[in-house]
Amino acid sequence: MYVVLGGGIGGLSVVHYLQKSSFKNVKLIEASSRVGGWIKTTKTPEGFVFEQGPRTVRPKGVAGENTLALIEDLGLVNKVMPIQYNHPAAQNRLIYVNKALHTLPFNNIRSLLVTQTPFTKPLICALFQDLKTPKKLVKDESIYDFVERRLGKEIAEYAVNPLICGVCAGDAKEISVKFLLKSLFEAEQTYGSIVKGMLMSIFKRKPSSIFQTKCELFKRAEKERWSVWSLDGGLELLPETLRISIKNQQADVLLSCPCTELVFQNGKAVVKVSEKIFECDHVISSLPAKQLALLLTKQHPELGKELSSIPTVSVVVVNLQFKGRLLKENAFGLLVPSSEKLPILGIVFDTCCFPKGDNTVLTVMMGGRWFDQFFGNDPSPDKLLSTAVQYVHSILHISGDPQAHEVSLLRNCIPQYVLGHYERIERIKAYVNEHNLPLSLVGASYDGVGINDVILSARTAVKNLIKIFNDGEVI
Ligand SMILES: Cc1cc2nc3c(=O)[nH]c(=O)nc-3n(C[C@H](O)[C@H](O)[C@H](O)COP(=O)(O)OP(=O)(O)OC[C@H]3O[C@@H](n4cnc5c(N)ncnc54)[C@H](O)[C@@H]3O)c2cc1C
Ligand SMILES: C=CC1=C(C)c2cc3[nH]c(cc4nc(cc5[nH]c(cc1n2)c(C)c5CCC(=O)O)C(CCC(=O)O)=C4C)c(C)c3C=C
């Protein structure tokens, strides 16, 4: 028997891939009363979709193709809502600097040649700086330092700093370039410059599809030039459909059952869940690393210490619906560089991507790496709501109260891949191997925070299990 810990998208995908490769005796253990983890959608009584966690998925690369293949497997193709590259939401990235909104100049070649505020030089100057800057051999560096050194302070401050807020709600001065922008890091280490590395990559063979034949939906995404996609009714449809699918194939799904201890003995794993104890051949954990650490630290303190050292940050998500079409800018949303020292990280313009009649739906995201500084220990929902509404008024000039709102405090929701993350993950994997622990690690804490990364990590873990047990069908 296999036990999968955690019913977020990682754990659900593991069960799906186990079943696909003919492992049928699977138990999924989830602490809360629902599946989906951070993927959570609510609907207002008037039918407005409020995403409390992720809202879009990228169709790019091997990981993007893998997720689209899963969507096909689950029969969700008709629910996919793509946003194409030429849509304003894909073209326009706004940042809020010096009390004004600015469009980031990365959407066409012409924009490289002109000076656009808040930048004081055309972007092309940054590319020349990169070509002139000598290569520096480093093991790792913060994304901010790397970009400042090679492309200049303005790109680090106005492009990379907000980008990191919009992917991990973190501080670019702490996040590892080797992990989050691996291709740019390797471009310098191998070719001496980002520009040269990018040019070389045009001639390099792209990684081929992991499928024998390309998935149809991926082919459509390429042909129609999708930038991102979502699901009609909200992204929670994905974990919910997975839950139904795995249950139909006889997986034992235990909800409201937090695992409290994990012990390894005689090549087996003993999983404690409330009063019950399950012995199994292998455990696949999709829990956040800190949660897993709590379960095994008594027996494996060294592993527990490494796992609990992966930092996380908390994000406040405030969904708002206003009557009327109130947005002047047509864009995915706006991001706020941390140098602005505001409690908000950014605002997503939901109804710009997916219009909803004569209404405006926005999502304000706040806190992240700066949560404690701005909100302290236990902020009240009223304070969080009024802060969000205040910035919607001052930045977007939308006055009046929202007709509907939802405030969610997502504690420790996003892991931070800080300097040294790569080496820490290597140490964790080595420990598991050297001690022959029947344990696989899946989920956002390790090899990528995006939904695509998490689903691919699930598939990879199952593929590796097939190798270990020399059993099951190849997926
Ligand atoms: C605000 C926000 C916006 C995001 N936006 C995007 C986006 O636009 N696009 C994108 O691709 N990604 C986005 N992400 C990232 C993505 O949503 C997550 O990385 C992904 O959902 C993580 O999935 P997971 O299965 O690894 O973990 P989780 O979702 O954390 O699932 C882990 C599960 O384990 C359970 N659990 C914990 N402890 C125990 C225990 N002791 N016993 C049993 N169960 C336990 C939890 O209840 C949870 O259900 C966003 C994330 C956040 C927070
Ligand atoms: C423009 C506004 C955005 C805000 C505000 C924002 C907040 C936010 N995002 C995450 C986590 C992720 N976002 C991801 C993708 C993504 N985010 C935005 C914009 C905002 N995010 C866009 C346009 C996209 C699409 C991808 C892109 O074009 O860059 C992802 C997935 C990344 C991947 O590798 O696929 C994650 C993860 C958090 C935690 C957050 C909170 C402030």
Automatic annotation (TrEMBL):
**Reactions catalysed according to its record:** protoporphyrinogen IX + 3 O2 = protoporphyrin IX + 3 H2O2
Q: Just give the chief location class.
A: mitochondrion
Needed cofactors:
FAD
List the Gene Ontology MF annotations in alphabetical order.
oxygen-dependent protoporphyrinogen oxidase activity
Its annotated pathway reads:
Porphyrin-containing compound metabolism; protoporphyrin-IX biosynthesis; protoporphyrin-IX from protoporphyrinogen-IX: step 1/1
Q: Name one GO biological process term.
A: protoporphyrinogen IX biosynthetic process
- Residue intervals of the Amine oxidase domain: 9-465
Taxonomically, which superkingdom? Answer: Eukaryota
Q: What class of enzyme is it?
A: oxidoreductase
From the Swiss-Prot or TrEMBL record, state where the protein is found.
Answer: Mitochondrion inner membrane
- Cofactor binding note from Swiss-Prot or TrEMBL: Binds 1 FAD per subunit.
SUPFAM superfamilies, sorted = FAD-linked reductases, C-terminal domain (SSF54373), FAD/NAD(P)-binding domain (SSF51905)
Alphabetical list of InterPro entries matching this protein? Amino_oxidase, FAD/NAD-bd_sf, Protoporphyrinogen_oxidase, Zeta_carotene_desat/Oxidored
Instruction: Give the record's GO CC terms.
Output: mitochondrial inner membrane
State its Enzyme Commission number(s): 1.3.3.4
Keywords, sorted A to Z:
FAD, Flavoprotein, Heme biosynthesis, Oxidoreductase, Porphyrin biosynthesis
Annotated function: Catalyzes the 6-electron oxidation of protoporphyrinogen-IX to form protoporphyrin-IX.
The similarity comment for this entry is: Belongs to the protoporphyrinogen/coproporphyrinogen oxidase family. Protoporphyrinogen oxidase subfamily.
State the name under which the record lists this protein: Protoporphyrinogen oxidase
Per the UniProt record, the source organism is Zootermopsis nevadensis
